[in-house]
Amino acid sequence: MRWRFLITLAWLLLLGPPLAALIVESAGHPEAWKAWAETGRLLELVRNTVLLVSGTLALALPVGTIAALLIYRCDLPGRMFVRRSIVLILFIPLPLLVSAWQAGLGSGGWLALGAWQTSSPNESLGDIPWKPWASGLPAAIWVHALASLPWVIWLAGQGVRWVEPHLEEDALTNSGTWSVVRHVTIPRALPAIGAAALWVVIQTAAEITVTDMMQVRTFAEEVYTQFARPDPAPNADSRDVLARAIALSIPPALLTALFVGLVLPRWQRRFPPLATTPHSGVTFRLGPWRWAAGSGIGGLLLLMLGVPVGSLIWRTGSVPPNDSWSLGVMIAQFSRAFEVQWARMAWSIAMALSTGIDTTALALLGCWIARDRKWVRVAMMIALILVWTLPGPIIGIGLKEAINGLMEIEDALSGGRTGVARRLLYDGPSPLPVKWATAIRFLPFAAALLWPVMRLIPSD
Question: Distance between CA 226 and CA 242 in Å, rounded?
Answer without folding.
Answer: 8
